[in-house]
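Q: Acyltransferase PGAP2, please. Structure only.
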Amino acid sequence: MLQGPYGSLERDRLLIRLPFTSFTVLTVLLPLVGLIACLFISLMYHYDDSTYTHCGVTNYLPSISAAISRVPERYIWRCCIGLHSAPRFLLSAAYFSFYRGRFASKRPELLLSVLTLVCSLAENSGLLMLTYVSSTETYNVHKNGFIVFIGSSLLHMLSTSFLWHRINRHSMLTEEVTSYRWKRRLFLVNIGCCLAAAYFFRRHNKYCETGVYTLFALFEYLVVFSNMAFHMTAFWDFGTKELIVATPSEDKRY
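A: Structure for Acyltransferase PGAP2:
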């Protein structure tokens, strides 16, 4: 349950009370630490396998798919994404509730809020799909999960940026202005990195040039990092809120 610092649950038996800023940081740190750990282990112990491509040319960095497909990297990544997925679904619901409150009388924004919710759920589901079905197991399923993740992620960031543009037009709160500016910047960075990654991936497959796949991998990392940073802006959006888990008092049990 999300609410302000002093909610109406004081009379209930409190189990967990966590500032939403801490909740956001922990949620983003799980995939961030997991990805960095997988990349480090792949470079240290599985360098030749993880950097190999069908072209056979020299490559210096593994793609994310290659970095999370071997053992123990596969289990580290699956554990981190599995633990982070439930908070991500909760965060999607929190944003939808927030938008409904802000745009209660504005039908276009409410419809866009629904689209944003759907995209957020699809993004998280696509991430789970590409995580639990690695490229070395069932490539087509992994590829489709990646497509769902990237497509829904871009659409989610676009719709979110538009909603916060509407909020920013009538807001005087420093946190909301800062959040909108960073959302817009990170969305543009993410689009640019996606285009660069797609370009280098296609060029590698077409010409098999040395080092081109490394550039693809580098921009792929930046796509994921900018996506994580975009979700991190919830730090400003819910800065005064808390995540509360409580059991109802005896007189509320029917």
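A: Brief note, in case it's useful. The chain is about 70% helix and 5% strand.
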